[in-house]
Specification:
This protein has 328 residues and is an alpha+beta fold. The chain is built from eight helices and four strands.
């Protein structure tokens, strides 16, 4: 007691230190208790999750069997679909020398040109099926394998176009590929196809475009996807009466001319046309011979004979090597 009185500062400091240590011990013990409780709860939940993950399918065996059956059937369907597209996989594309590729390009271009000219189709000057860049330059050898595939694909499409008999081929554009610039193609690990874009513009009849588009959808061994198409009429103005082509009565057989006069009276007047027809239009008026067995079909008016201009963009789709499917 005398020491405390003699050393009040030290005694006070010791008392404060003792109180603080006691408080720290209490707080630490409470925190340790909460930590142990939290750790115990976490370990319990973690073990429950691990146990649930090890169960094949919770909670019934018939659900597990149903899932396995569905996965097996899905795998078979995917395998069948993959087999269906095996014909569009070219396999390994072998590179050739630049000179050999140039020779193949010229041969293919001659074949397409001959087919188009035989169909009466006008061809643009300097036509080379979208490979005009190689008129003066040689292809890079490491790109020749892919270029050959592109070449055969567009040749096949243009031969189909020749069979549809267009009147004029306006343009063929081919999108470049990275290999032509010493770059690698952007093919992801999950990609199953690679696409090469083309644009073709031509002029022809309505049937020619119908036949060409139909051929793109059914031909093998190349798989084409039409991306967009634009169709314009060669004429902006609607057909006029003067566009109609009829035979004049004087050009008919006597019996046919008499039949026309009998049914319509003389002189014959076109519907919607004044009785007095100018001489320059009279020459363009033609009347079909009348079939007595079909009095309802008297005139055949030929209008809309102009052609249409077609722009079509399509992709040549190359299927990549098939990937191994994971087991269910």
């Amino acid at each position: 007691m005398n020491w405390i009185k003699s050393n009040p500062f030290v005694a006070t400091l010791a008392a404060i230190t003792l109180v603080i240590c006691g408080a720290l011990y209490f707080v630490g013990s409470q925190g340790a208790k909460k930590y142990e409780e939290a750790k115990s709860s976490f370990d319990e939940s973690y073990q429950a999750v691990q146990k649930a993950e090890n169960i094949p399918l919770y909670p019934k065996a018939d659900l597990r069997n149903g899932k396995s059956k569905a996965l097996t059937e899905y795998g078979v369907a995917i395998e069948d679909l993959r087999t269906l597209f095996d014909g569009y996989r070219p396999g390994d594309l072998k590179n050739v020398s630049p000179q050999d590729f140039t020779a193949s390009l010229k041969q293919a271009n001659n074949e397409v040109t001959d087919a188009l000219e035989a169909a009466g189709c006008k061809i643009p000057e300097g036509f080379l099926m979208g490979f005009e860049h190689y008129v003066y330059d040689l292809a890079k050898e490491k790109a020749t394998g892919v270029l050959n595939y592109q070449l055969e694909g567009v040749k096949h499409a243009l031969l189909q176009l020749a069979e549809s008999r267009p009147s004029e081929l306006l343009n063929v554009f081919r999108e470049g590929i990275p290999e032509e610039n010493d770059a690698e193609p952007d093919i992801g690990s999950k990609d199953v196809i690679r696409q090469f874009g083309y644009e073709v513009a031509f002029k022809g009849s309505e049937s020619s475009i119908r036949e060409f588009v139909s051929s793109l959808g059914k031909t093998e061994p190349y798989y084409y996807i039409v991306r967009c198409m634009k169709v314009e009429n060669e004429r902006d103005d609607p057909p006029q009466v003067s566009d109609a082509k009829f035979e004049t009565a004087s050009a008919l057989e006597p019996a046919a001319a008499a039949a026309v006069d009998d049914q319509f009276g003389s002189p014959f007047v076109l519907p919607g046309v004044e009785e007095e027809v100018p001489a320059e239009e009279e020459e363009a008026i033609v009347v079909e011979p009348v079939d007595s067995a079909d009095s309802g079909r008297i005139l055949a008016q030929v209008l809309g004979s102009e052609e249409i201009i077609v722009f079509i963009r399509f992709d040549l789709t190359m299927f990549l090597a098939a990937k191994e499917l994971p087991k269910p």
